[in-house]
Specification:
405 residues; alpha/beta; 14 helices; binds adenosine-5'-diphosphate; binds magnesium ion
């Protein structure tokens, strides 16, 4: 059995820890609009600093494609992290090289150095071994708390563990792996998955994997129209992935064979286009008239989904049920969030950037058993795939002394 070492199991006092975090925050005109990801890394940072370590902190930000770009600088992140931590955070001019190594070596106990954007170097996304060695030279131990980047085989999460040991999971990474493993391997029944969002193609692997585990899959969002079309229901001008209709039909057939109920919307909120302010209408049934597009699930569907959720002992939710950014098409998503929050004795997990944004906006995040910080990473994990960032920690722990737990 592979074992992921936890940061609590490695000696880090008086050591310089290379800490990979996910500080890929949204920026508008150089200002951070949501610092959830910074806050999520604070427990690990505090644990390390309180335990007498110094930290060399590394992250990617945006898609600078292997070249330094001022608009993708981590400078605003350094400033915000310094505020949140209440101690000095120095931004390095780069993430590898002699100057940065000098700055890392000069760090006092309790010092924090934030490296400049890892993706300013092409070697990061190429999982390049020489680049990984350059990163490894900056630390004396490796901790990965970037669950949101764990599904990428990139140098700072994968190749680096061959050169820097011990290698351990941070508190956030550890919690994500623990909660998602419980959901994947030991879900209490009835287990209901609620899936929405824009595209079937993003989630078809997940659905196929879930078929072997869940009792029901409730489908909303734009994804539902592809499934409805596959079932021969009229969808008007709604978003359909024409090249996935056959795949959706095959998935529906597999669900029937396995005795999993695939529950599609029974009514919709429609309009003649997705722009805000247009008059909207509620369909009496599942069919959508010509010239109309579906933008949210209707009231009957909200009730059907709500009843399924109320009976469930495990719920996994990914993807908004409508165009929730535009009122009034947020009602299906809000109703689902409230239904899950109200479900008693239910192990509820939500993953996905937009779904998490929706429950955070409602102030319901603390009513869920687990809110995953990794969109793509959580979906791949639940799809049964091995995440490169987790595999790299596991293989690195094979030759490290492992405390029992
Ligand atoms: P997540 O980030 O939670 O994984 P996705 O990225 O898959 O979710 O999908 C979110 C997007 O899907 C949102 O921008 C939402 O507006 C869109 N969406 C959901 N339902 C509809 C719909 N009926 N019509 C248009 N867009 C939709
Ligand atoms: Mg999204």
């Amino acid at each position: 059995m592979s074992h992921t070492l936890s940061v609590r199991e490695i000696p880090f006092a008086s050591r310089r820890v290379f800490l990979r975090v996910d500080f890929n925050v949204p920026l508008e005109a150089g200002r951070i609009t949501d610092d959830t990801r910074l806050a999520a890394a604070l427990p690990t940072i505090r644990l390390l600093l309180d335990g007498g370590a110094s930290i060399v902190c590394a992250s990617h930000l945006g898609r600078p494609k292997g070249k330094p770009r001022p608009e993708a600088s981590l400078r605003p992140v350094a400033a915000r992290l310094q505020e949140l931590l209440g101690r000095k955070v120095t931004l390095a001019p780069d993430c590898v090289g002699a100057e940065v190594e000098g700055m890392a070596r000069a760090l006092p106990r309790g010092g924090v150095l934030l490296l400049e954007n890892l993706r300013f170097h092409a070697g990061e996304e190429q999982n390049d071994d020489a680049f990984a060695r350059g990163l490894a030279a900056l630390g004396e131990a490796y901790v990965n708390d970037a669950f949101g980047a764990a599904h990428r085989a990139h140098a700072s999460v994968a190749a680096i563990t061959a050169h820097l040991k011990p290698a351990a999971a941070g508190l956030l990474m550890d919690r994500e792996i623990g909660m998602l493993t419980r959901l994947r391997d030991r879900p209490e029944k009835p287990y209901v998955a609620l899936l929405g969002g824009a595209k079937v193609s993003d989630k078809i692997d997940l659905i196929d994997h879930l078929l072997g585990r869940v009792d029901a899959i409730l489908v909303g969002g734009a994804m539902a129209y592809t499934f409805l079309k596959a079932a021969g229901v009229a969808v008007g001008g709604s978003r359909v992935e024409a090249d996935r209709v056959d795949a959706a039909r095959a998935t529906a057939a597999r669900a029937r064979e396995r005795g999993v109920r695939l529950v599609l919307p029974v009514d919709h909120i429609v309009a003649d286009g997705p722009a805000p302010g247009r008059p909207s209408d509620t369909t009496p049934g599942a069919a959508i008239p010509d010239g109309m597009v579906g933008l949210d699930v209707g009231p009957q569907t909200r009730a059907v989904f709500g009843a399924e959720i109320a009976r469930a002992r495990t719920v996994f939710w990914n993807g908004p049920l409508g165009l929730f950014e535009v009122a009034p098409y947020d009602q299906g998503t809000l109703a689902a969030a409230r239904a899950i929050a109200a479900a008693e004795r239910c192990f509820s997990v939500v993953g996905g950037g937009d779904s998490v944004a929706a429950i955070t906006r409602l102030g319901l995040a603390d009513r869920f058993a687990h809110v995953s910080t990794g969109g793509g990473a959580s979906l791949e994990f639940l799809s049964g795939l091995t995440l490169p960032g987790v595999a790299a920690l596991d293989s690195a722990s094979g030759d490290a002394p492992v405390a029992s737990r």
